[in-house]
Amino acid sequence: MKLGGIRFAFVRVGRFFRLVWRLLPALVLLSILISLPLVWSWPANRGAHFTLHVFDVGQGDSSLVQCGRVQALVDGGPDRQALSGLGRSMPFTDRRIEYIFLTHPHDDHIFGLFTMLERYEIGRLVVSPYVVELLLGQELLALAESRGVPVTVAEAGDSFVLGDCGELVVLWPDERAEEEIRGSRDRTNDLSLVLELRSLTRQDQTGVLALLMGDAGFLVEDQLAARGVVCPVSVLKVGHHGSRYSTNIEFIRAATPESAVISVGENNYGHPSQVTLRRLGSFADQTFRTDHDGTVVFDLGSNFDF
Q1: Where is the Metallo-beta-lactamase domain (predicted)?
Q2: 3-class SS at 7?
Q3: Rounded distance, CA 83 to CA 288, Å?
Q4: Per-residue model confidence as pLDDT tens digits over 140-161
Q5: What are 53-71's pLDDT values in tens digits?
Q6: Same-domain pairing of 133 and 16
Q7: Which end of the chain has a smaller Cβ tally under 10 Å, C or N?
């Protein structure tokens, strides 16, 4: 009887292992499916909690500010390249961008935003009062309305909080902007939104982390410097792709950036100008270019890094 019981036990154990072997592929697949959300969310949790990404989009502009799972996109570049940057920077399961800022409606800043509005849930679209002056701006506003995206027409002094990390503050334009830029080489560029990224934990001037200049040039820089709103910054996002008509000496001296970054690609405009690069070299510790360095990511946390 004992021998028969042992044989019966071995038979049962053998059947159990055969069953496990047959179910093994399904168990492996189930474990993979369970772990996928963790894998997909990994990019948002690795590295810095508070970051600025200046995407390599060729001759155009697109930057992403991240505070954990809160995102603010500034411009969308000339095509769909910024989508790839978002895919690498945001978790797969996160399909929401809290804010999209359009600095001005030139095609190298706006075209990519049409796809963003179609692919993502957008919390709010923020534009300058002059976005309607060009047809592309009107078309983007129409798309936002059709998709139920709230629109804010921003002016100097407006602030947009990004989670518990920081806020984007509009420095330009204000109600005097049109008068102040009379004689501008490019009215649309000089009516760009200029944004200052501040820390919520440091309220003095050391809390000014980045200055994003859009395509603003000398006239705007002079106005901002004269009004005393340009503070020392960790990162200067250089205006107008490093054009020789932006980033003057007085402005750089006021901003005294630790790092500067130029969003630029192959072009026929001479961007970035060697004159501008020399000016930056006199003040910034390091100057990055997306055409040479690819996408540049700055860690804006307590230990500033790139």
Answers
A1: 59-266
A2: helix
A3: 21
A4: 999 999 999 999 999 999 999 9
A5: 999 999 999 999 999 999 9
A6: no
A7: N
